[in-house]
Automatic annotation (TrEMBL):
<feature type="transmembrane region" description="Helical">
    <location>
        <begin position="70"/>
        <end position="93"/>
    </location>
</feature>
<feature type="domain" description="GAF">
    <location>
        <begin position="621"/>
        <end position="763"/>
    </location>
</feature>
<feature type="region of interest" description="Disordered">
    <location>
        <begin position="761"/>
        <end position="788"/>
    </location>
</feature>
<keyword id="KW-1133">Transmembrane helix</keyword>
<dbReference type="InterPro" id="IPR003018">
    <property type="entry name" value="GAF"/>
</dbReference>
<feature type="transmembrane region" description="Helical">
    <location>
        <begin position="18"/>
        <end position="37"/>
    </location>
</feature>
<dbReference type="InterPro" id="IPR002549">
    <property type="entry name" value="AI-2E-like"/>
</dbReference>
<feature type="transmembrane region" description="Helical">
    <location>
        <begin position="43"/>
        <end position="63"/>
    </location>
</feature>
<protein>
    <submittedName>
        <fullName>AI-2E family transporter</fullName>
    </submittedName>
</protein>
<keyword id="KW-0812">Transmembrane</keyword>
<keyword id="KW-0472">Membrane</keyword>
<dbReference type="Pfam" id="PF01590">
    <property type="entry name" value="GAF"/>
</dbReference>
<comment type="similarity">
    <text>Belongs to the autoinducer-2 exporter (AI-2E) (TC 2.A.86) family.</text>
</comment>
<dbReference type="Pfam" id="PF01594">
    <property type="entry name" value="AI-2E_transport"/>
</dbReference>
<feature type="transmembrane region" description="Helical">
    <location>
        <begin position="257"/>
        <end position="280"/>
    </location>
</feature>
<feature type="transmembrane region" description="Helical">
    <location>
        <begin position="172"/>
        <end position="195"/>
    </location>
</feature>
<keyword id="KW-0813">Transport</keyword>
Amino acid sequence: MIPSLPPSRIEPPQQTDVVRLAAALLIAAIVIAALYLGQVVLIPLAVAFLISFALGPLVHWLVRHGLSRMLAVALTLAMVLTVLGGLGALVSVQVQSLGAQLPTYQSTIRTKIKDLGARMEGPGFLEGALETVDTVQKEVAEVVGGDENEVPPQRVRVIPEPVSPFRTAMLWLSPLLAPVATAGIVLVFVVLILLDQGDLRDRLLRILGGSIHRSTDALEEASKRISKYLLMQLVVNVTYAIPMALGLWAIGVPGWILWGTLAAVMRFIPYVGPILSAIFPLSLAFAVDPGWNMVLMTAALILALELVSNNVVEPLLYGSSTGLSVLSLIAAATFWTAIWGPVGLVLSTPLTVCLLVVGRYIPQLSILETLLGSGPALSRPTRIYQRLIANDPDDAIDIAEDAIEETSVTAFYNDEGMEVLRQASIDYINNARAEHRLRIANGMDELLEEIREEHPADLPPDAAPRVACIAGKWEIDRQACEMLAHSLALDGLPAVVRASGSITSRYVAGLELEGVQVVVLSFFSREPDAAARNLIRRLRARWPQPRIVLGLWGIPPEALDPQRHEALGADAVVASIKEATGRIALLTSEARKAEAGVAQDPQAAALRDETLRNVALDDPELREDLNDYALRAADVFDMKTAAIIAIGPAHELVIGASRDLPGPRTADGRNLVMLSPEAPLAARLLAEDGPLMIPDIERDPVLAQHDILRAWSARALAAAPMRQADGVVLGALFLIHDEVRELDDEELRLLETLAAEVAERMTGEKSAPLPEPERPAVSATVGQQVPD
């Protein structure tokens, strides 16, 4: 009898997904209907929030300088209304002047139209078609008109009843009442939002619920991004409008202040605004000048300003950050215009930014970030892997070349190339068909061959191989060997690749390893121990001279036991191309010391030594403050140890720590832990532009042998340089943990901030400003620029 399964096992798993999809669609329909039906209330509220985002930074600045919030809000609104009123007065004067001059331009317009008509007269390729159309129109008129002798119908004139003056006034005023009422409501909302921002933020946090940390980050990011977007958009529009107004004045186009102001306002409308703002000055130039010089100069001015604004001013102000993809922005503009009309078009970008931030911080709505964000939806290794599956190696090569241009060949192999092979190894049995495996194998070989041709190694043609890379089992094992061999050749170590084969004594004897110093065995298998141990044993028996490095590429680095190589009989175990090149360089006695290539110039070293001599490291108050900084850093980042290390003339010194650290001490009475000159730590950051992050010290060939780090039970390490305002590095703030750990970019930037505070406390002077963070890559070159 077959046992019955529990009900939870019988129910199809797809049913839950269908219910969730239906619920999501129902909620989306309700939200869209509410947005459409409630636009009378929601539009003024959205405009008020938008204005408050723009005015909020000015209000905060006034409050920080001693004004009460009510006075700061009143002063801000008074300044804004004064500027708008003055600008409106100038525009009204321009409008009146143009209204008086427009009748004088009628003769110029008629002359130009007649001239264009005369030029279009005469035989042409459309003459026959036009005559045919005229003939058809005449025949239709005869059929419809009937008898020509019929009496034409008489016109009847309807005289309306006289309208009272009161009703006339109401007819004139009623179209103005709605906009004035809406403006009043918006002004009231703006005042209330600026006065009660704290209470409003608390209410939004209560509505969002969930993690208060995540909700706070979402509100903070949305506020910063929208405020900066509006400020930068205003600056861009003003820097466009002023040259445009001055250029129109120099050309002689009337109403130059009006058209400059119109350009500044209309450019807030995405896509359509710049086109609309250009129509009016071009039309007026057409009407004013009897010739065509003014029209051509006006068009050239607008084109030049657009090119400068789009390619110089906007990248300079926004940076290279892109928050929204152009496709999502166009779709959002279409959606909000359909829901709320022209106002929705103006609000589309800020509202879409809010949706993007919500999708980033609320896991249930992460689909919004995928749909709206400009960042690639797939990681670079996944994109390459997908192109190979789709039998499109050319596109995969293009993606690989872009990655190599950003970093290097070795970095591409380490970060992207090996990850492609890992994905292929995971899908080899579970998902991939034979056709897919063949495409990946052929496409990867083509990609690697292209990279070797584009980036050849500078080695003598007759250089004897010193490293042999042997594939363990699959084709992807051999391709990993190809990557490693090319990386070693670029570092000056000639290497040869040996294909996989059956692990027999005959196969091992035919490997020809004479003169080879290091043998690398490549395995992507999840359980390679048996095959690796057997192959290593046979290699040791036949070729005892070479050192053996075991590359276990398919196993997560944090899962590798530091003593695993001893159990398998290898000299070392590596998990990445970067680690393998470092280990092999050490085994071939060509490794550079950790301090090599990172020393500053003598002048910088002299400045650092002079600064540290003026720091009273024996001052108990300073020592206590430095220990407090280290304790705070360890607590904030949840690390086992935090240490502040200064770069002395002869030794590196631990001048602050969150706990007592073992190690040799100074003999001058200060009782500071002293690092060996042959094994420095802070000196590694001298040539670094930013912080250092090593998630697993066991995977670093040099630091894995560091005696001090072993004594401190260090497995993960992060550090940020303590840099003076003149750029000289005094030392570094280190975070050390006894387990594999990695900090994200925001955490590393926070670590840099703490290191800057330590430098200021030591020297009493302002530290160097932090470098701007790198902007995320975009999926297309036409992404909409939105500040971070």
